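Translate sequence into structure tokens.
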Amino acid sequence: MTTEFYVEGIDDIKYLTLNFCIDNNGKTTNVKIIADKTTIQDSSIINQIVNYRKGIEYYPDTKLKNNCHDQTFSFISKEFEKSSIAESDFYKLENFKNGNYKYYDINYKNTLITRTENFQIEETNGEVYKYKIEWPKPNQYVLTYLEVGKKEHEYLIGEKIYVEIIKQIDYQTYVYRSNLLDQTIITGIIIKDN
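Result follows.
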């Protein structure tokens, strides 16, 4: 689970990951910060989110009850909210069409991305996801699932992730916004590794 907020005073993206438990009645209990998956330092933001998470209640028949879960909150620079690449700068994005990459995202720090003209392969802890990649515009690419690393993700085969590069930070780094199934919108940063 990831929730995004655009915030003033942040240069890039910071993360807060919480572990919370749901009791038999659907109430949230035992909210804890996962330190190694948290990069935000602002204690007022952290306290607000922890209190918000503590106040969430679910219906008693929720499938989440009697279990603990992780939730990551992303705090994204307000600058990225309406960012887009000008057509006159499209030529600067050619560098991103192939190579090795990694996610800046704290939840995917062990993911290795290999991109060629036609395919993107992502590997995390032995799980491999393979996509066909198409570039309708220099600042947009579409990833179509060809293979998934977990059996429970097989429903994604053939589905598309629409990605827009919304800001180039430097020659090796860009900010993207992705959309999967019109419901999972993620803003993140990808860094070229070579």
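Note: The first helix runs from residue 43 to 54.
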